[in-house]
Amino acid sequence: MSNTDQSPLLSLPYIQGSQAQKHVTHNEALERLDMLVQLTVEALDATIPPASAAEGQAWVVGIGASGAWASHPGDIAAWRGGGWLFVTPHPGWRAWDKTTNENLAYDGTGWIAAGGVADLQNLDGLGVNAASDATNRLTVSSPATLLNHEGAGHQLKINKAAISDTASLLYQSGFSGRAEMGLAGNDDFSVKVSGDGTAFTEALRINAATGAVAMPATGTRQLIPYNYRYYFYSDRRWVAPSANAGSLNATQSLGTGAEPSIDWDGKGLYLPAGSTINAFTLTGSTDNAQINDLDLRIWFQYGPWDTSWSSAAQTTRTVLYSGDGAGFIGAGGLRRTVFPLAYTTPADGYLVVGARADATSTLSATRYFYSASVADITLPPSV
């Protein structure tokens, strides 16, 4: 037919004047309308005509088709009235693809998705109530985000390519980082915090190989036993841990003055610089009722190693607690008293506890105070 014999878009044949059997032209036009209006195709790029097609079924013919479709690549092939009816699509035509459940549009070259069930695979980005970008390819602006299970558990997986890369959760304030947890630059699990979003301090680290827990910024907190048998002499001299490293007796004489004398040999518990003495718990009991109570001194002492610590100029001593007969023992029996100290050591030195029988105690012989005490210490991060 010439262009004047059919419609320009759907190529529907016109009924011509003085045409015989006008119903033939009319019926052919109806066939095309029935095929193309609300067009549904079984599949795209089909190359082999089906052996038995149902009346009205249609396919989009692919390149390299065989049989009756061989010379119709790109056309729509519909089984109509016992034969194949071919129609060439025009840009803007729509069709429903039954294979993919997609609404397709013909753009002049091929068929592209135009609605229906969207293809959400390999998207460049996705924004929910927000716009995604090249870095934040998934962006969600919402009061909350729910990741729920589907019948069992649920895992949120954050994967990295190499050990030196980062897989972490970053918590922000005003889009400035304040806390980060995960695998940051290695495979150890760490928690870091920041006050300005630039400098981060590692607060917690769990070794990936051993599971050992470290607190790099805080140090390691330990409860260190401080157990001695204190000799209480009848002359009320001050005593501290013995100079004998193998002794569990507190017999080192520090004099009978109002305060313990400075003495190089009167060492106690060694602590490195930067340690925090959180508290000291004194627990113990006496062997004799003549010990009514005790006087107690807790101090930290340090100085040069090459002198004898016989004067204040040769050592530095900071008294952390000073108590005279403050009711530690009372009527006897086991007693426990906690002394909060919160002292950070300025240098390597010694925590020393000195004691003596108080002024209300009259001793006819040497008596004993059995101490099972503990020092609450936080060692510095470098230890």
Q: Output the CATH class name of the largest domain.
A: Mainly Beta
H/E series: HEEEEEEEEEEEEEEEEEEEEEEEEE
CATH 2nd-level architecture of the largest domain: Sandwich
- The computed structural class is mainly beta
- Quickly count the domains: 3
The side-by-side strand order for the widest beta sheet comes to: 10-11-12-13-14
Helix content: under 10%
Provide the gyration radius in Å.
46 Å
Tell me the major beta sheet: 5 strands, antiparallel
- Counting DSSP H or I runs of 4 or more residues, the number of helices is 1
Low-confidence parts: none
User: What share of the residues does DSSP label as strand, in percent?
Assistant: 35-45%
**pLDDT averaged over residues:** 87
General form: rod-shaped
Give the distance, in angstroms, between the N- and C-terminal Cα atoms. Answer: 97 Å
What is the fold named in CATH at topology level of the largest domain? Jelly Rolls
Number of extended strands: 25
Observed structural traits:
383 residues; Jelly Rolls; 3 domains; 4% helix; rod-shaped
Explained architecture:
- The structure is a single chain.
- By secondary structure, the chain is mainly beta.
- It has three domains: 3-116, no CATH class; 166-214; 220-379, Jelly Rolls.
- The protein is 4% helix and 39% strand.
- The protein has one helix and 25 strands.
- The strands form seven sheets. It has a five-stranded antiparallel sheet with strand order 10-11-12-13-14, with no helix packed on it.
- The protein is rod-shaped, with a radius of gyration of 46 Å.
- The termini are far apart.
- The model has no long low-confidence stretch (mean pLDDT 87).
